Amino acid sequence: GRGGRVIIVTTDLIGLPRAITDVVAARLQKQHSLKRSEVLFNSSHTHTGPVVRPNLMTMFDLNEEDRARLDAYASKLTDLLFQVASEALSGASPATVEYGVGEAGFAINRRQPGPKGVRIGENPAGPVDRSVPMIKVTSRSGKLLGVLFAYACHNTTLTGEFNEVSGDYAGVAQEAFEKNHAGAIAMFMMLCGGDQNPNPRSTLALAQEHGAALAAEASRVAGGKLKTLRGPVRTAFEVTELGFAPHTREQFEAELSSSNPSAVRRANAMLKAYNDRLPIRRTPYPVQAVRFGRELTLLALGGEVVVDYDLRAKKEFGGRGEDLIVAGYSNDVMCYIPSKRVLGEGGYEAVDSMIYYGQPGPFAEDVEERVFAGVRRVMKRVGR
Question: Which residues contact 77 (CB under 8 A, 6 or more apart)?
Answer without folding.
Answer: 20, 52
